[in-house]
Amino acid sequence: MKARPPVTDWATDFDHMHQDWTQDPYPIWQDLRQRCPVAHTDRFEGAYLPVRYADIREIAYDPAHFSSRRIVIRDERLPLVSFPPITSDPPDHRAQRAVLLPLFTPAAMAPHEAAIRRICRGLVDRFADKGTCDGAADYAQEITVAVTAMLLGISSDDGDLFRRWLNDLLVVGTDDPALVMRTHGEMAGFFMKEIALRRANPGQDIISRLLEARIDEAPLDDAQLVGMVRLLLIAGIDTTWSALGSCLLHLATHADDRRRLVADPSLMPTAIEELLRAYSPVSIAREIVADTEVGGCPFKAGQMVLLSFAAANRDPEAFPDADKVVLDRAENRHAAFGLGIHRCIGSHLARLEMTIALEEWLARIPEFSLAPDAIVTWSAGAVRGPRQLPLVF
Ligand code: HEM
Asked: For 384, what's the count of Cα atoms within 13 Å in the CB-facing half-sphere?
C-alpha cells in the first residue's frame, strides 16, 4: 500500500487506512463524537463515518438503504465479487446464512475444543522457556490459521499463502484493484480444487458439509461454494488473530488486570467480552443504495459508509467508562461481532479460541510484559490488530 496523504481534518477528510488511525484511532473518534458524529471524506469516491453506537446500529439494521454488496472501502470501486452471506442482502441472505449457522453452533464447536487446546499448548511449548516471543506472530496468528485450516479440512502448511491473500485483499489491495481481482481468482482456483477433492472423497470438514447443504432443495453451485469457503477463510483468520493479539497486548501492559485474571479464572468469560468490546478488530462497510438520513445527517446514494464497530464500542453514551477496560463489566452488549442480520456466525468459535488461547498462555506464562523498546505494529483496514507484538517473560 502506498503512503496515504496526510488527513487535513478527520471530520471532512477521514482515512481509516491512514497510519494515525491504524496506530491509535481512539482520540480521533472521541474528537468526532463531540464535534461531528458523522464524518465524511471525498477519498474512496466518497464515504461516511458514523462514530456513535446508535447511528452505527441504525445503519446495520437497515439493509434497504445500506447494502452489503460492497463491504470493503477501496480507493476505487471494483466489480462486485460475491462472498455469501456477508455480501448478500435480503431476500437471498437469509437462506445462505441458514446454511452456515448449524456448522458454527456451540454444540458444533465443542468437539474441536481438545484439538484447539493441543494447538495452543504446542505453540506455547515452542517459546515458554525462551523468555521471549512475538505474541501476534508466534501465537495469535498461528492459532487462527491452524484452527481455520482444520475446520475446512485444508493444510495449515499453506498458512503463508492464506496470510498473503488476506493482506492482498484487505490491506495492500485497497489501492491496487488488479491485485484484488488476481487474488480472488487465485483463491477460487485453490478452493475449486479442494471442492473437487471433497466431492470425490467427502469427510467431516466444513467444505464436505457444504456439499450436502441445500437452498430451496438445490445443492449450492460452484460459485456459491467457493464464495462461502473464501469468506470463512477470510473471516476466520485475521479477526480472531487480531482480537487475541489485542488481549495479549492489554494483559502485557496492564499488570493489575493480568494478575486479577490469573488469580480468578472465573472472570474469563466477562474478560473476553470486555476485551472484545474495547479492542474490536472489525470495521466493515456498506454501499448506500438509496438516499436517507441517520442521526440528522443525509446519506447520499452511491457513496460508502464505514461501520466501525470498534468506534461504537467506545461510545460513552452506550458504555459507561467506555475507554476503560473493566474485566467484570456486567452490562456489555458490545458490537464487536456486528449488529443486525449479518451478525457474526463464527462468534462461538472465536470465543472458544480466545478462551483456550488465554487459558493455555496464562497457565504457563502468568507474568509477561512488552519487551523493552518494543515497537507494536498494527494492521490497517477492515481488520485492525497487532501484527508485531514483542513480549518478554
Ligand atoms: C474475534 C473474532 C471475530 C470478530 C471480531 C468477527 C466480527 C464479525 C463482524 C463484525 C461481522 C459482521 C459483518 C457485517 O456486518 O457486515 C461478522 C460476520 C461474519 N463472521 Fe465474524 N468475526 C470473528 C470471527 C469469525 C470466525 C472465527 C468466523 C468463522 C470461521 C467468522 C465468520 C463470519 C461470517 C460467516 C460472517 C457473515 C455473517 C452474515 O453475513 O450473515 N467470524 N464477523
From this structure: 26
